[in-house]
Amino acid sequence: MTAEATIEVAPGAVGSVREKDRIHNLDLLRGWAILGILAVNAMAFAWPVELMMAEAPPPGELSRADVIGLWVTDVFFSDKMRTLFTMLFGVSVFLVGGERRDETRGKVLVRRLLWLGLFGLLHGALLWYGDILLHYAYCGLLLMLMRSWSAKRLLWVGGLITLLWGVIATLGYWGMANLPPEFAEQMAAGRPTATPESIAAVVEIYRSGWPAGLIENLKHWAMFQLMISPFLIPITVPLMMVGLGLFKSGYLSGKAPMWTYLLVLLAGGANVVLFAVWGWQEAMAGEGVDPTGGLADAAGGMAPLVRR
C-alpha cells in the first residue's frame, strides 16, 4: 500500500476497516508499542502514586532484581514505547479522518475521538488515575487541524519541536545531576518522599473499597489532569505530527531511501547503548551515587530517537 493510500468508509458505517485496507506493519508496530507501554505501567498498577512520584523508593526496599528490572524498563521501554504509540496515533487520525475537506470521514473521526475521551474519562476517574486516553483524545482533536499538511511541513514543525524538548530534557537531566551541593539539598528537600508507613497507609485506603478507594483514585486522577496532562500537549501533538509526516513521506511503508533508515538506526542505537551502559553503572553504584556525572539520566532525554 502506498503512503498516499487511505481507508474507505462506507456510507452509514462507523469507520470499519476492511481486511484488504489494513496496513499490517502499522498494526504490528502499534501492538508492540502497547505491550511496551504495559511493561512500564505494570509498576504503576501495583505501586501507590506516592511511590511513583517519589525521587526514589525507601532505602533498602529494592532488591537487586528490582534494580535490574527498573534498569531494563528505563533503557528499553520507558518513553520509547509511548513515543512510538503517539506517532502511530497521529497516523490513525489521518487514516480515519482523511483530508480536512472530507466532511464525512471528518465526522467519523470526531465521533471516535469523543468516544475515546469518554472512555478515558470514566476509566481514569473510576478505575485507574494514570489512564491517558482522555489526553490522546483532545490531542487528536488538535491534530485534526493539521492532518492535511504536507509530509515536509509536518516533519519540520513536529520534528523541530520534538528535538527542542529532547535538548531541554537532556540538558535538564544533566544540569540537575550537577547542581552545587547547597542547591541540590534544597531541591531534594522539596521532592515528595515515600516511607513504608505512608505507602502502607495509601494501600490500606485502596483496600478499604468504596467510597474511600474511589475518592483516592479520583483525587490522583484530577491532579494528573490539572497539573500534568496540559503540559504534555506540546510534547504529544508534535510527536503525532512526526508520525503522520513519516507516514505521508513513505518512511513507515519502507519507501524512504536506505540511508535514512541506517542513519536513524545508528542514532537510536547509539543512544540506547550509551543509556544502557551509563544507566547500568548508576544502578550498580547504589542509592544516591552517580558515577556518570548525570550522563545516565541525560541519555534518556533523547528517547524519541530510539523509536524512529
Topology:
Blueprint: H1 24-46, H2 49-53, H3 64-76, H4 80-97, H5 103-126, H6 133-144, H7 151-177, H8 181-190, H9 196-207, H10 212-227, H11 229-249, H12 258-285, H13 295-298
Strand proportion: under 5%
Q: Shape, please? A: globular
Order of helices and strands: HHHHHHHHHHHHH
Q: Termini distance?
A: 20 Å
How many helical elements?
13
Structure classification: mainly alpha
| Cα-based radius of gyration, to the nearest Å | 21 Å
Number of strands: 0
Mean pLDDT over the residues = 83
What low-confidence regions span 5 or more consecutive residues with pLDDT below 50?
1-15
- Counting copies of identical and different chains, the oligomeric state is single chain
The main pleated sheet reads as:
none
Fraction of helical residues: 55-70%
Explained architecture:
This protein has 308 residues and is mostly helical. It contains 13 helices and no strands. It has helices at 24-46, 49-53, 64-76, 80-97, 103-126, 133-144, 151-177, 181-190, 196-207, 212-227, 229-249, 258-285, 295-298.
Keywords:
mainly alpha
Concise description?
69% of the residues lie in helices and 0% in strands.
